[in-house]
Amino acid sequence: MIATTVGSTANEIDTTTRKRRWRMPIAPIRIIAPIIVFVLVIALWSVVSHFLLAEESRFLLPAPEAVISHGLSDSVVRTEILTALWSTVQIALVGLGIASVLGVGFAVLMCQARWAEYSLYPYAVILQTIPILAVVPLFGFWFGYEFGSRVIVCVMVALFPIITNTLFGLKSVAAAEHDLFTLHGANRWQRLLKLQLPAALPAMISGFKISGGMAVIGSIVADFFFRQGQPGIGRMIDVYRQRLATEELLTALLLSSLVGLILFWSFDFLAGRVDRAHGLSRGR
Question: Nearest-CA neighbor of 253 among 61, 49, 26?
Answer without folding.
Answer: 61
